[in-house]
Amino acid sequence: MKKAKIVVSKDGPYIVTGGLPMDTQISGLDADGEPDTWVNGKKYSLQAEYNLCRCGKSKNKPFCDGSHETSHFDGTETASRRPHAEESEILEGPGVDVANAYNLCVRARFCHPKGGIMELIQNSDDPESKKAAIHEACNCPGGKLVPFDKKTGKAIEDNYRPSLSLLEDPQKGVSGPVQVKGGVAIESCDGQAYETRNRVTLCRCGESRNKPYCDGNHVDSGFNDGDKSLK
Ligand code: FES
Q: Which of 121, 148, 175 is the C-terminal boundary of a domain?
C-alpha cells in the first residue's frame, strides 16, 4: 500500500491514495445546546484509492462523479502555504497557551461553550477552565486552535491515526468539510506540499474562499451531502 496522501487536483476532486479509512463525524451538543463532542456516524468501506468531490455538485457525494467539469468548477487554491506557527497569534493564559490561526475557522463553534475559549484561557489557573480550554481547542476540527503545554512548550494534540472524517452539523442543518487527521500529506495541484498537520479541514462544498481549506462558508451556502443526521 502506498503512503497515504491527498492531491488537490486542478479544478477537480481530492485524489486520495494509500487506503485512508473514512467515516462521518457528527457534531454533538452539551446540556446548553452548544457543540461539545464528535459523535461517530457512518463508516465507509476501505478503498485503496478514491476521489472525493470538492466542487459540492456531485450526485454521488462524498465521491466525485465528474460534475466539476459540467459546472466549470473554479477550484483555485488561495490558502497560505505558511505553517500554522507562522499564521497564528498566541493567546496566553496562566495555565495554557493556545495558538490561533484565524483564517482556519470553519465555524464549528466548539470554542463557544463555558463562556468561550478566550475566557477559559484567561482563567486557566483554575484546573477546570484549563481542562475545558484544552478540550475545546483539541476539538476544533480545522486545527485553527492548538493548545501548548506551558512547561514543555509542546503542542497538546489528540492521537489520531491517519484517516478522514466527513463532518456534519445538524444544529445548523448543514454538512461541513472533510477533516484530515493523523498527519496525512496534502499536495497542491502545483506539486507543492501543504504543512502536514494532525488535523485540518478541506472544503467539499466548493464555496470556500480559502481553498483547499474550509472557511465555514458551507454554513451560508447550506451545503447538504444527504447524510441522514441532517434530516
Ligand atoms: S466545506 Fe466549509 S467552506 Fe466548503
A: 148
